[in-house]
Amino acid sequence: MAAYATQADLVALGLPQKALATIGVPAVDAALESASRIVDSYIGSRYDLPLKTWDASVVQATVKVAALTLMQGRGFAPGVVDADNLQRGYDQAIAWCRDVARGLATPSVVDTTDQSKPPVDPQNAPFVRQAPQGSATAPTSSSRRGW
Predict the structure, then answer these.
(1) Which of 36, 66, 34 is nearest to 49 (CA)?
(2) Which residues have CB under 8 Å from 113's CB, separation 6+?
(3) Is the pLDDT of residue 111 over 90?
(4) Is 52 helix (H, G, I), strand (E, B) or coil?
(5) How far is it, in rounded angstroms, from Cα 85 to Cα 76?
(6) Rounded percentage of the chain residues whose pLDDT exceeds 90
(7) Cβ proximity of 71 and 19 under 8 Å
């Protein structure tokens, strides 16, 4: 599956280029892929994965998760303003993912749902009706099929 954010997104929305100078491209790509799967673990309860398209909110959440992961891997001092900002961004991203899973936030995405089949309206969903056993309208054993 593809990552929801690119290295350019990471620089534009998460970390300055200088912070990534000592981190190799494969490590950045791995962090973005990992962050995308973390986002999936929340939004997958609501959307069929993999997503075909996604909006900036999904990119933003992915970048915030990847940024903290990369800086933790590189090493930085907790309690420093930058570290607190990274942690806060991560926490906000995860909170947003939880909101998506709960239906409180709705990103603009296209998932892999088969669009040719309309969703079933619960008010008009088919159901089976059977008269109680022993009633005059109960089906006979010869007319019972299936279940």
Answers:
(1) 36
(2) 47, 48
(3) yes
(4) coil
(5) 12
(6) 59
(7) yes
